[in-house]
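In the previous chapter we treated chains in isolation. Here, by contrast, the input contains two separate entities that must be folded as one system, with a combined length of 382 residues.
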Amino acid sequence: MDVLNTLEEKAFWGHEFLTWLWYRIEEHGGEVPVPGMGTATLWIEERLTLGSLETDSKENILRNGEVARSAEAAAALAVGKKVQEVRLGLAVNDREYEFTLKGDTLDLAAGKVPSVEGDPDEGWHGTALVRAGLIREIWDVLDALYREFVENRVSSAWPDTVTSMGRWISEKRGA
Amino acid sequence: MGLLSGGIRMRRYRVMGDVPPDFRDRYEEAIQTHAFQDFASDDEREQVAGWVGANDWFEPGLPLDRWLVGSTICLTLRVDTKRIPSKYFKLQCRRREAEWRLKAGREDLTRAERDEIAALVRRELLERVIPSVQGTDMVWDLDRREAWFWSTAEKANETFRTLFERTFGLRLRPLFPYSLALEVLGEDRAEVLDRVAPAWFAPGGGS
């Protein structure tokens, strides 16, 4: 089978990851220990897209305000929708980032990294190295989180996670 | 938007295979071979693609210091495209067909004649069209075996993968959720991943 087709068929991994990430941030905090970096902090920004691969139901695209705490987001989760795309904020030490993460592909979009003061002695090489280092920080945090998710997803602890996520959704609905 | 300034929009790949110890020499030659080359005056292609320097798309020559930055290879994929407006193309073909009929002194043109006219019109118009120029950055982190390509568009990524693989002789695997999960667990546990079915998180059970 074609590699790309296989990857597309397994896109649910990404949607589950983003939904779990939202749950993790709200229920267990957005702090992420990253090897060699210390602790990063992640939060949901003002954009969230929910949908379902299993049904033809309409996507919910939520923008502006506290989308993660909105009644529409809770209602979408309650009917089985998962996160297809999320805008995240990230702080690492004194550096702040913002980006949209796509569930199907884990592509980054509309990303903002701290501005880089170019060193005239180093020319464009210096700017490239610093910006690449900043982008690497985003991927390091996402990789640490994805590892945590995958290890949980295939472990015997997963049914408990699902139950806990169900409770979280019920509480959001009741809130 | 790119490596040196602006916002971040990217797809991440794993570079499969090893970089040769003499990569500096080898890749310098390979990059030069696959460097961007402009349309020739009688070019019949609608699109040309190749590498240019990330710091300047229009400066020719790609010596080592224009692409090796620390332990990363930084390049820009330049794609120039000529698009012939389809309505104008059809109109020109009709005009030429009318002239042909008059010259040949008959009403019907054969399929081969029509094709010949279309090819002629296409060639003429291609010479007159100014191409659109697009550059998309690429960073290959040699230590992490990761390549980042500053676009999420499928077509652009397809062009990138093809050119990368031709240039460096190494395959690219997109780091999509499943392939990343496979890396986390290890390729030898692929069957564990394949048994995983989509979960239902909503309370009360679902499908």
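Chain A touches chain B through 59 residues (CB under 8 Å). The mean pLDDT of chain A is 90. Compare these points with the single-chain example from earlier in the chapter.
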